[in-house]
Design brief:
The structure holds 2 protein chains of 2 kinds.
Chain A: E1 27-35, H1 39-50, E2 55-58, H2 74-80, E3 87-89, E4 95-97, H3 119-129, H4 136-149, E5 152-153, H5 161-173, E6 177-179, E7 182-185, E8 194-195, H6 202-208, E9 212-214, E10 217-225, E11 228-236, E12 241-251, H7 254-264, E13 276-277, E14 280-286, E15 300-302, E16 309-313, H8 318-325, H9 329-332, E17 342-349, E18 354-358, E19 367-371, H10 374-393, E20 398-401, H11 413-421, E21 429-431, E22 434-435, E23 461-463, H12 478-494
Parallel strand pairs in A: 1-2, 1-12, 2-9, 4-21, 12-23
Antiparallel strand pairs in A: 3-4, 5-7, 6-15, 7-8, 10-11, 11-12, 13-22, 14-17, 14-20, 16-17, 18-19
Chain B: E1 7-8, H1 10-13, H2 17-31, H3 35-50, H4 56-71, H5 75-93, H6 97-106, H7 114-130, H8 141-144
The chains are: A alpha+beta, B mainly alpha.
Chain lengths: 500, 145
Amino acid sequence: MSAQAGTTPTATATATATTATTPATTTMDADVLIIGSGAGGATTAAELAEAGLDVLIVEEGEWVEQGAVVPFSLEQMDRQYRAGGVTVALGLPSIAYTEGRCAGGGTEVNSGLYWRPPGDVLQRWRDEFRIADFDPDELLSIADEVEREISVSTMPGSYTQPSDVLRRGADTLGWRNGEIPRWMKYPAHAPGGERQSMTLTYLPRAMRAGARMATGCRIDGLVRSGGTAISADTTLTDGRRGSITFRHVFVCGGAIQSPALLQRSGVRGHIGKTLAVHPTVKLAARFTDELNVPDDVPVHQVKEFAPHLSFGGSASNPGLVALSLLDQWPTFQHAITEWRKISVYYAAITSEGLGRVRSFPRMKDPVVTYGLTHRDRELLRSGLGRLALLMLEAGAVEVYPSFKGAPSVKSRRDLATMQHAFAATRASVMTVHLCSTVPMGELPGRTGANSFGLVHGCNNIYVNDASLLPTAPGVNPQASVMAFAIRNARRFVASGGRHA
Amino acid sequence: MFSRSLKVGTTTTQRTGGDAISQLRFHLLMRQVPALPVVGSFAERLLAIDLPDLAPAKRREVIGFIAHRVDSLPSFTRFGVLFLGYIFRGMVAVPGGWSVARILMKLPLPLVAEYPRLIRSLGFAYVWEHWPDTTTTGASLEKAA
């Protein structure tokens, strides 16, 4: 594999620049094209660029400096989320989900909570999906590196009050809980923390090693000759069409966009058929004192019933508090004027259901569907009940579950009524963890890519993002995504791009 | 358009003469209809009921935001929302139609029930993010005091 550059592109990133804008030219080329700049794409780019390869990263969204927008605000959703954060997997109920669409992808907009891939999950993936040459210890060793690079650390000083609510309630009930570390630095000038997302870590690292990056550049489809992709059709933000030629392509657009691009490009196989998510239901809890933190999320999670059920805290700016009350607005509306005393919490489940991502001719965006199983619905019911109990034990004076027809919960006596009234079809179900649409491994019929991300039936199209995770891991998947992406990138370099 | 013998994805195969026309037709159908005229009157009616004391200027701003968000929805979702938007707009426009719309909104109809929920969600999120001291009727807390 050569490491030389092709024709000189005018993506604005140079060997020393560590930011990017929309390219001035519509025609570019590279040895390796990386589509997407999130947890998978950024780590892949850094590994390949540092190995001396000519790397071009393209990102559909814009580069937004940290601090330029208020976290979890509507402005952030406009600038850094796909479709302004209004995306949905159709079903009964439909499940709202969000995708980052900016330089750094989801790492720029999520909670930053870090979970190592659980050892038992890694072994199950290896055995059930026949992932070859896969040593869980090797992956955990890569996780060590990642943790150093993105400064995974616990919070100095005292916890925020919404976070302490989770700890207090769980401690009272004797439920297992703890602080989840985040990819954060806590310098003196930013005591609330400075997120060590991809735009501050792996993307600058890739660009220092010579990678170029173009933002505002959507990949419409890959042009293939048999099993080999030779170029990508692009549309820039200003509407200009163009193309990028390459020798290898890594598709790292996330679990929705990666399979959608492959489908638009005519790639067949087990692509987009097994979307896995962690569905969540929410409630708002009102306390006697003001505790709301509009621009941050609690760092505690309750894992007593993990991996099936976990509890944590959500972003709770006043707009989001209003949303959590909306399903039962006629009876819950009085609470909105006291939003400073309210924080929003979630119960997340590991789902047995599955979803699909389907691209249709002439449609720019894929159609996403998801079906919850009976067990999932019951788990959501039980989860919401237990979460409400936890809130009461933590001192909540009133709890407002987010489903149509919900009663407010003021004491333990109300819990049975609430659980009886719950139906998943009337709830505001959402998720932020999407994965498994191109599962990796050698098991025929259940995997879309081989054990290192090479798409089955293709010679030079790789997937290297959350799509590869064989199932939902039961914890925040970002650490797993980064560790697998680095493993696969290293294998690619070691094999000279010939591990088909 | 491609003279080389390439196996190309659906996006690239569309770039032929006949397909270009149907693509244009589809584009007109999917993207060229601005959301504001379709969802505006329905959003205004919902806001007037939910937040009757919201100042007219604020209400216009909220409706503009809702339309902007509908315009940026993924293509399939946007198509569905605009389709329902036309139906609800029609109901708002005819005498007695709003009563029918209210009944429809209360029925547990998949997708149909999602439409007013989406409009409300966008509106409420905007109102309380931008004017957090808003009362349950939409008035400003300071003004109410």
